[in-house]
Amino acid sequence: MIKEMAWLPMQENKEEMALHLRTTPNRPWKPYTSFPEYAVPDHPIPGGSKGYATFQKLRLQGWNLLSTRQASRLNYYA
C-alpha cells in the first residue's frame, strides 16, 4: 500500500481545494472523505482547509505529501 496525499481541486467545485488520498499505484486520487478509515473531522474553523485535520494525522503516520503539480501530472481523479 502506498500512502500519498495531495491538495487537489474538488470535482464539483474546481475553485475549492481539499485533501485527496491515494493508497494504490495507478489508481485515482479520491477526496479524504472517501476514506472513513483515515479521515477525521475537520477543525471547526470558518474557511479552514478541507481535510487539514486528516492531513495532520496522516503526516504523523508517515504518509507522503505530493505537490498539487506532481499529483495533477498523474491525471487520475475519482
Topology diagram in text:
Elements lengths: L3 E6 L7 E6 L7 E2 L20 H9 L3 E2 L2 H7 L4
Parallel strand pairs: 1-4
Antiparallel strand pairs: 1-2, 2-3
Characterize the structure shown.
- The protein is an alpha+beta fold and 78 residues long.
- The chain has one domain.
- 21% of the residues lie in helices and 21% in strands.
- The chain has a four-stranded mixed beta sheet with strand order 3-2-1-4.
- A hairpin with a 7-residue loop joins strand 2 and strand 3 (30-31).
- The longest helix has 9 residues, at 52-60.
- The chain is globular, with a radius of gyration of 12 Å.
- The relative contact order is 0.29.
Element order: H for helix, E for strand: EEEHEH
* Average pLDDT reading: 92
Q: Using only CA atoms, what is the Rg?
A: 12 Å
Instruction: Please report the total strand number as a whole number.
Output: 4
Main pleated sheet: 4 strands, mixed
Major β-sheet strand ordering: 3-2-1-4
Q: Report the portion of residues in β strands.
A: 15-25%
Low-confidence stretches: none
Question: What structural class should be given to the helix and strand makeup?
Answer: alpha+beta
> Helix share of residues?
10-25%
Distance between termini? 18 Å
**Contiguous helical run count:** 2
What global shape is seen?
globular
Number of domains: 1
